[in-house]
Amino acid sequence: MLLLSQDETRKALPFDRLIDALDAMFMTGCEMPVRHHHDMAVPGEPDATMLLMPAWVPGAYVGVKIVNVMPGNSDRGLPAISAEYLLSDGRSGEMLAMINGGELTARRTAAASALAARYLARSDASHLVIVGTGRLSINLVGAHMAVRPITKVSFWGRNRAKADAMAAEAQSLYGVEAEGVSDLEVAVGAADIVSAATLSLEPLIHGAWLKPGTHVDLVGAFKPTMRESDDEAIRVASVFVDTRNGCTKEGGDIVQPLASGVLALSDVKADLYELARGLHIGRTNDSEITLFKSVGAALEDLAGAILAYESSKR
């Protein structure tokens, strides 16, 4: 069985190829049961979450990811997410590969955001604002740079030192102008793309701050009790999601506005299935504000795992 470390998984999943792999999988589809979602108490810390995410292409590949999300790890200087992915043969059941799930998750999540941006962000979008300083943040830079002409990246976090460190890492990795910022309102107001990846329980991005043409990418807040955008952001934007079933049940940025009546199900313009299949054109003009919410889908992991396995076997 092939074993891919974190570094090997990263090398096997370049963003340009991964984004295309996700696009193709959303276009063709796969079998994807509802994922198992279990809250786990951690004494003295925020509750943790265990996720089990199966998916398969009949007769081709079968995969499952096991994820532990541990918010308390931020105080320990450890990643919030630990995961592994097991890929098997879809006919024989032979276990083919164990792939580093943390790296797979970070890269496929960023790639899904970039795939959405390919349909929803202005073609000339050049200023990216990243809200959050976790593991996913640096991946969001690389992924968005694969689909849009990003020349400037601003990082905001509750800890300014972490934002500055992220900016230095982005400059080193991607050669892009990058900075840490303290004033989120000013940063969001100047952004072409705002990408948030946090575990926030309260809105961070306000609709009143968004200039015409902005694309908002909401990656964090994966529980109904979490929120990264306020009601005004939902009101002023054309709303898109990665999957309708997932976002209308799990992500607070969609669940809460649906519950309050700020958003109706019919107001969700399209999901990634519909965008990939050409059933919705995405952005309609340069002044439109677009908002994309993702909660993740096992389809994305499977597409990434197949790409990593096949690339490593060549």
TrEMBL record:
Highest taxon of source: Bacteria
Coiled coil location: none
TM annotation in the entry: none
InterPro entries associated with the record: NAD(P)-bd_dom_sf, ODC_Mu_crystall, ODC_N
UniProt-listed PANTHER family: KETIMINE REDUCTASE MU-CRYSTALLIN (PTHR13812)
Family according to the record: Belongs to the ornithine cyclodeaminase/mu-crystallin family.
Protein name according to UniProt: Ornithine cyclodeaminase family protein
Annotated source species: Roseibium algae
